[in-house]
Amino acid sequence: MIVKQLKATLNSPAYRLISATACRNWSLLAIVLLTNLFSALLEGSTLGVIYLAISLLSDSQKQQFPPLLERLLSIVSLPNEILFLGLLGLAVVLQALLALSNYGNKVSAAYLSARAQPQVTGRVFEQIMSFSFACASHYKIGDLLNFANSAASSVNNQIQTLNGLIVSLTFNIVYAAILVSLSPLLAVVAVVLAVVMVIIQRQLLPRLRAAAHRLNSAQVELSKRMTENIQALRLLHTFGTQQRATDEVTLLLRDVQIQLQQRARIFYLPEPILDILPILSLAILAALSFSMSDTPETILPLLVTFLLALQRLSIRLRGVAGAFTQLADNSANMQRLNSILETSDKQFALVGRETFEFLQTDICFEDVSLSYTADQSLALQNVNFRIPKNQVTALVGQSGAGKSSIVDLLIGLYQPSLGRIAVNGKDLQNYNQASWRQHIGVVSQDTFIFNTSILDNLRYGAPEATFEEVTEAAKAAQAHQFILDLPDSYETTVGERGYRLSGGQRQRLALARAILKQPEILILDEATSALDSESERLIQQALAEFQQNRTVIVIAHRLSTIVAADQIVVLEKGQLVEQGSHRTLIQKQGRYAHYWNLQTQEIAV
């Protein structure tokens, strides 16, 4: 059972990533292992030297030495006092080497961790970026941020803890060998000490893992809620609900506090037990040794060395216990890292084999249906229509009719549940999505502005554009003058999501950004809805010129803006109900004519 769990853990995505990083940095890993082994040997040698030094202070006639040491002592004809001081000096040298070796071990492990952390963070971010939009939209932004931000610390904790565990286990093997060589009978005490530690760990680790998972869940929920509230500051201030948001976060903070306290009670419980056991063992050992020996002076070197080794063994056993406790405590973070790196339950952006060059003929929706949800309720149902090259196609319908769904499919944010979208007669999924999207410009009502300069925002789709090209695009979008009026003109930083700009200004920047990109296919989703009448008139004129020799898809609620469209597609409840030019649809006296009459009557009133 334990072997299966270990196998599953080592085969998890997070550990595979750590293993791959370790393989790429094999030289550092070799240093970690070699310094660990060297430190253990130095520690054992130090104890051996201490044993010899104490033995020299005893009556040498009664003290039994190993044959090799007896021969060495007979060659070195020096007083015991001189030899004792020399051995103490050697012990100091060995401890200095041990300290340097430990330093090298920790630095090399830290270097390995330093290389692994950015690689893991980059891998998590790459994974998130490779999700299909449908997959990514299932997560909250705060959740994705937490995945990316916590990955490095989780891996760092895991590497440092595993290194500490390996070091402690290696030292324990050395101490165990020393104890058995000194006195197999007394070594049983060390075995009992280890068994007690194992029993304690077996009882506490499951509880600690459960507490760590509860704490991790509480912290993630807190992070998500705080991120959402900060992102929605404008809404919170508009509705006056800052206090409610603060109260909700306070409740989550209390939950985190409770989970931290519960974790602490379990996490630190082994320490007092492991503090008491070594002292108790040492006292029992000393009493038994002196009571069983008729010549205490001969057993003194053995006893002192044994007790010293046992005391150090207990410290390393605490290190092993602490490492297992840390691994259990970090298990929730590693499991969470595995959940984002796992690929079997994710949808990824399609990467077609063919690069899209340009639109040769048309874009055709062929029996396209789309469902956003698992219950298979359809946002689009059996939609068939053609978007000819270099013509203007307008999408009309009430809210929820399916207009935005068609745009989502065109951009490739979602894939059709049924049917297909053919571009130049080929399935859109055959094309590389990045190359396809490079030919598309989108201006929507919800304009995203980065917290950088206006110049950088405008160049986002065309980073190589010259300043003259940028200003020409801004003039065409009626944005140039208001940009000049800003404190730093085109170098003005506009704040998070462009909060320092009005809705109309943000929309003009989005128009300028699209114009600067010079896309072959232009999608306008109520692109002038936030503008005043005069600005809208001027921009419509600029768009009329810009739309020449381009394929344009327009979503419009104000039907007066699409009268000149080459074709108008009328949608209702996800189905195409009418299609034709403005004049043709007016003559049909159908849904479009009904919408037209309603809007013209409102204008007349």
Explain what the structure shows.
This protein is an alpha/beta fold. It has a domain at 2-341: ABC transporter type 1, transmembrane domain (ABC transporter transmembrane region fold), CATH 1.20.1560. 65% of the residues lie in helices and 10% in strands. It is built from 21 helices and ten strands. It has helices spanning 2-10, 13-24, 26-57, 67-75, 80-130, 133-136, 141-182, 184-231, 233-239, 242-267, 270-292, 296-341, 403-411, 433-437, 454-458, 467-476, 480-484, 503-517, 533-546, 582-588, 591-604, and strands spanning 362-371, 378-388, 392-396, 418-423, 426-427, 440-443, 521-525, 551-555, 567-572, 575-580. A six-stranded mixed beta sheet has the order 6-7-8-3-9-10, sandwiched between helices. A hairpin with a 2-residue loop joins β9 and β10 (575-580). α8 (184-231) packs antiparallel against α11 (270-292) and α11 runs antiparallel to α12 (296-341). The longest helix has 51 residues, at 80-130. The chain is elongated and about 120 Å long.
Which secondary structure elements does this structure contain, and how are they paired or packed?
Elements lengths: L1 H9 L2 H12 L1 H32 L9 H9 L4 H51 L2 H4 L4 H42 L1 H48 L1 H7 L2 H26 L2 H23 L3 H46 L20 E10 L6 E11 L3 E5 L6 H9 L6 E6 L2 E2 L5 H5 L2 E4 L10 H5 L8 H10 L3 H5 L18 H15 L3 E5 L7 H14 L4 E5 L11 E6 L2 E6 L1 H7 L2 H14 L1
Parallel strand pairs: 3-8, 3-9, 6-7, 7-8
Antiparallel strand pairs: 1-2, 1-4, 4-5, 9-10
Helix pairs in contact: 2-5, 3-5, 3-7, 3-12, 5-7, 7-8, 7-12, 8-10, 8-11, 8-12, 11-12, 16-18, 20-21
